[in-house]
Design goal:
Elements lengths: L2 H11 L1 H11 L3 E12 L2 E13 L4 E5 L6 H8 L7 E6 L2 E2 L5 H11 E5 L10 H11 L4 H14 L15 H13 L5 E5 L7 H16 L3 E5 L3 H4 L4 E6 L2 E7 L1 H12 L1
Parallel strand pairs: 3-8, 3-9, 6-7, 7-8
Antiparallel strand pairs: 1-2, 1-4, 4-5, 9-10
Helix pairs in contact: 1-2, 5-6, 5-7, 6-7, 7-8
The structure holds adenosine-5'-diphosphate (ADP) and magnesium ion (MG).
Length: about 260
């Protein structure tokens, strides 16, 4: 019996591991027939029309589709920032609609890191203060807060820009501050909605390299983009059209990854 088999047996039988093992095997995200309908006066607009998919832990998924196809609506649901009009969303095996406000706040603050196209930084706050913000919400004391915010900024290579305000930083640097802010609570899922949409291509590639590193460190990454070359950084591409998934495929990288697993 190999060491691995013994480990597997232990994982399967130890009561402690039993709480971990099912979560590791089951999808971190599962949606079933998600609908989002906006009421505009007397008219109804169906932004999502029955979206079902699963994302496993440490997957790197790009969501693509034309403007208005429902990508941001879907990201807002995945991030628990909004609720579906119909359908079910399971996060880590748990039905999100049955969570109370405290659980939802915890998830938004600790489990998920958000990165937006427009950076969404506080204009009058320094890089350090911007990154400290999620820690203030989660009640981390000041000394530890500053240390963790510094560490997060160092991870995105901005140790020398901590006291700069957003208007004293380049676009790429602002997005890196936003990524540091997304990382500071060590979330397991990173949601990035067109993170390179306001950046030139060289800077975009730097941001994508950073997301690659985070994926390598075990994060689950979901990235919205309408740029095919940016989507190719992901392993899997979900394409959305008119509020429905119209294709779900492996990217070139995803194929390489699968082939490498097979040859081991
Ligand atoms: P995408 O991110 O793919 O460009 P969105 O998810 O932002 O698309 O929007 C999908 C559709 O839903 C669009 O037709 C948009 O106009 C509409 N929509 C999005 N948010 C709202 C809202 N808060 N109220 C009404 N309609 C909305
Ligand atoms: Mg959008």
């Amino acid at each position: 019996m190999s060491a691995n088999t013994i480990m597997d047996e232990q994982i399967a039988t130890s009561p402690e591991a039993q709480t971990v093992a099912p979560g590791a095997a089951s999808p971190i995200i599962r949606t079933e027939d998600l609908w989002k309908t906006y009421k505009m006066g007397s008219e109804e607009l169906h932004a999502l029309r029955g979206v079902s998919f699963e994302i496993k832990r440490n997957e790197y998924v790009a969501i693509m589709g034309p403007s208005g196809s429902g990508k941001s609506t879907l990201m807002n649901l995945i991030g628990c920032l909004d609720t579906p009009s119909k359908g079910q969303y399971f996060l880590n095996g748990k039905l999100v609609s049955e969570m109370d406000d405290d659980e939802l706040a915890y998830i938004r603050n600790r489990e998920i890191g958000f990165v937006f196209q427009t950076f969404n930084l506080l204009a009058r706050a320094t890089a350090l203060q911007n990154v400290e913000l999620p820690l203030i919400y989660s009640g981390v004391p000041s000394g530890e807060r500053i240390q963790r915010a510094r560490d997060a900024l160092a991870r995105v290579d901005l140790a020398d820009r901590m006291t700069h305000k957003p208007n004293e930083l380049s676009g790429g640097q602002r997005q890196r501050v936003a990524i540091a802010r997304a990382l500071v609570n060590n979330p397991s899922i990173i949601l990035a909605d067109e993170p390179t949409g306001n950046l030139d291509s060289q800077t975009s590639y730097e941001i994508m390299a950073l997301l690659d590193t985070l994926h390598g460190q075990g994060n689950t990454i979901i990235l919205v983009t309408h740029e095919p070359d940016i989507a190719e950084y992901a392993h899997r591409v979900l394409h959305i059209l008119d509020g429905q998934i119209d294709s779900d495929r492996l990217s070139t990288k995803g194929h390489e990854h699968t082939a490498n697993l097979g040859s081991n």
